[in-house]
Design a protein that fits this description.
With 88 residues, the protein is an all-alpha fold. The protein has one domain. The protein contains three helices and no strands. Helix 1 packs antiparallel against helix 2 and helix 2 runs antiparallel to helix 3. It is elongated.
Amino acid sequence: MRGCVTTISSSALDLMLGSAIRFYLGMLLFLLAFAVGLGHWTQLVIALPVFLAGTAIRTRLEDGLLEQQFGEEFRDYRRATPALIPRI
């Protein structure tokens, strides 16, 4: 798809990025609930930092791609929106 130009509306960009934020937050909450439910607190001590580091790397890469694709519109969105925990 190189060289393909795609236009997307602001509302579609909001939906796409909002979904990603909820996805990462959902994964984190699932990890915590799983550890609590099964009583695996010691594994959580290892899994939580690994999850957070992986999420930080992944979101940094995604932000770069989104900034490349959407430019100033994404930079405005990033300034107004928290990276991991959405405002409710």
